[in-house]
Amino acid sequence: MSPRITRREAGKSAALAGLAFYHGASARSITAAESPNEKLNLACIGVGGRGSANVGGVASENLVALVDVDEKRAGGAFAKHSGARRFTDYRRMLDAIGHELDGVVISTPDHTHFHPAYYAMQLGLHVYLEKPLAHNVWETRTLTNLARENKLATQLGAQRHALTNMHRVVELIQAGAIGKVHQVHSWVGGSRGMPDIPPEEPVPPTLDYDLWVGPARYRPYSSKICPYGWRFWWDFGTGETGNWGCHILDIPFWALGLRFPSRVDADGPEVDPMRTPKSMHAVFRFPDSNQGSPVELHWSHGKPDVLTQHNLPAKGNNTLFIGEDGMLLCGFSGRKLYPEEKFSDFAPPEPTIPDSPGFHKEWIAACKGDQIATCNFDYSGPLAETVLLGNVAYRSGGFDWDAESLGTGENKQAQKLIREVYRRGWELDAAV
User: Domain spanning 162-194+226-357+385-418 has what CATH number?
Assistant: First the structure.
């Protein structure tokens, strides 16, 4: 692989510029990556499945290259954007044309988020990266720090952040509609997880399976794992918590200005060493919030007991804020204050959060030196870390969390999950 290099032009330096877009980050004076009217040169890594939607989200720019390990699954994107160069291996792509690019869009499985993002960021490229940002906490923190150090425009794929209802929920909480919030319950329904262990199958001729496995521990190919079932295997995915946590916990993180928990606990069914659970419950204790008080944040895979306790509906909802003066129950598309009789004549605050121009458009604009994208890694990194810490606590037991040192105290089993060992040939020096 090529050694680390700087961007090809000073005028292409990274942009986390402008005024903060929603989150109040300070403005930075930098050189724009492009003029607002000039198109970016982008490469998309992982273009089947969810990746095809992200390709469409940035199709207004110059799609220089499309990269995918599965020629068949990527066929639709390849055909629709036939002018883009095709690659199977992102490393070969970045070696060949990295100097021509302004940014990359990465939509691979969780276990292969870090390596292409890290390599691209070493080249000074802006990054749009699917949630949950990376496969473990150390990877997440490393990418967050690298983006800040290199002043790169980043966006985590938590696209529901742009929904108008979420804006109104944040405004209600921050306006003090229910007083100081001391407890939040968030959840996702369903019972996906613990899949059957499938038999080995022949690798399809259109798939580079060894490259798909990448840095993870090698497991024989099965169509039940690749291309999608990987999500429920610890070696490749992060379960339903990683799948939905960054979307749903985005609501309390944003509304309460949360950063890093100081204590994490979790419980659930017996831990399986290979597969993610069908249900679990995690508790994150934050020492402070933007309301100046501690917050206890609960995450449940499965309907939480608190809804039954307060006789509240789960359908259409995913978050309950409990404050000193009331409760706010919400989902992505609706919200309601409780007790109903207390808030029957309540007048909501005037909207202050502007509509998003489009989630992908935010990142494109940030790459060109405009306002910071709303889910840039400085905001979404701590969110993703918290989500992943819930899985760590479920698999290893609770721990006090030292966010500065990435330390789990005396919980040695948890510490082993903070940074994983890569498969031979994928250590950082070898892989990037």
Answer: 3.30.360
**Greatest Cα pair distance in the chain:** 65
Q: Is 25 left (phi over 0), alpha (psi -120 to 50) or beta?
A: beta
Note if the pTM is more than 0.90: yes
Taking the mean position of all CA atoms in its chain, how far away is CA 298? 19
Domain boundaries, the chain: 10-159, 162-194+226-357+385-418
133 and 380 Cβ atoms separated by less than 8 Å: yes
> What confidence tens digit (pLDDT) does each residue in 37-86 have?
799 999 999 999 999 999 999 999 999 999 999 999 999 999 999 999 99
The per-residue pLDDT for range 206-227, each reduced to its tens digit, is: 999 999 999 999 999 999 999 9
b/e map 265-298, b = 16+ CB within 10 Å: bbebeeeeeebbbbbbbbbbbbeebbbeeebbbb
Strand residue runs (E) in 226-332: 263-267, 280-286, 295-301, 319-323, 326-330
Mark residue 311 as left, alpha or beta (left: phi above 0; alpha: psi -120 to 50; beta: remaining). left
Which secondary-structure segment (H or E) carries 105? strand 103-106
Say which CATH topology domain 10-159 has. Answer: Rossmann fold (3.40.50)
Pair 111, 238: CB distance under 8 Å: no
Cα–Cα distance measured from residue 2 to residue 417, given in angstroms and rounded to the nearest whole number = 30
- Alpha carbon 340 to its chain centroid, in Å, reads 34
